[in-house]
Amino acid sequence: MENEALDPLVEGYLAYAKDVRRNAARTIVDVRCTLRHVTTAMAKRRPGVPLWKLSLEDYLRWVDGARSAGRSVRSLAKELSHVRGLLNYAWRSGRTDRNVLDGFELQDSKQRIEVRTLELEEAKRLVGCLGRRTSEERKKRMMILLLYGCGLRTGELCALDVTDVDREKQEVIVRHGKGDRARTIPVPEGVWTELLGYLGDRQGKRGALFRTQVKKARIDSAEVCEVVTEAVKQAGLEGAITPKTLRHAFGTHLMDEGVDVAVISSLMGHRGPQETGVYLHALAGKKEQAVDRLARLDSEEDGQ
Fold it and tell me: How many domains does the chain divide into?
């Protein structure tokens, strides 16, 4: 049943998503599952009417019924996003005169919890408390610097290899970000200097950029959390500060500096509403300038 082919237009859209948009295999599976589920649900309401021929009112009734059945706004918003992509494809293919879901978004009525971030002075204190006398201290310091200075996710930091550091372009390469999207991130000058020093500690060894001290295996998310917790305690900072807090601070501080939201989205590997590349013209020459605004963090601290 799960492998049964869908309508030819839907199969064409999935092929387009795979071959042209280069969506990850697991994303294609997710979209296929959604379109199969929504097609089945809508067939009970409007038998024989394909998804791209339904009205906005049809979708609103479906959403209302799903919400009454206990479905979350988040899960429904994800499914609507998948259907919206199909309807846009159908519109471009001339199978419908409009995308009825274009511009339609679900809003969660629940109050959002404000995410903890760091003030710039707190970030300076955090980095300033980190030693660099031993190789282990330099490793932990480098982990914090990359989390904050490059906005890496915990998993992305753990997955970095030595070969992911581009010495010619002064960048780190995230090969498999969220959604299996790759990206490159310019490294601030002060962080780059320390990164080169850390690579010197590795003495040309390849493989994982960060390894555990005891078994010399690739670090995992638990160790990253321990390093951050230890540094937060040493810096005397209060509140729940996690690796994600450092990533959030990266984006927040760039935004505070007036950096274009599209540039920040690219640096952080976000999937924005205009993921197709409409805003890519804004990136030329700006990514390096944007990250360098954080370089003063390292230049202003006292040498250790």
Answer: 2
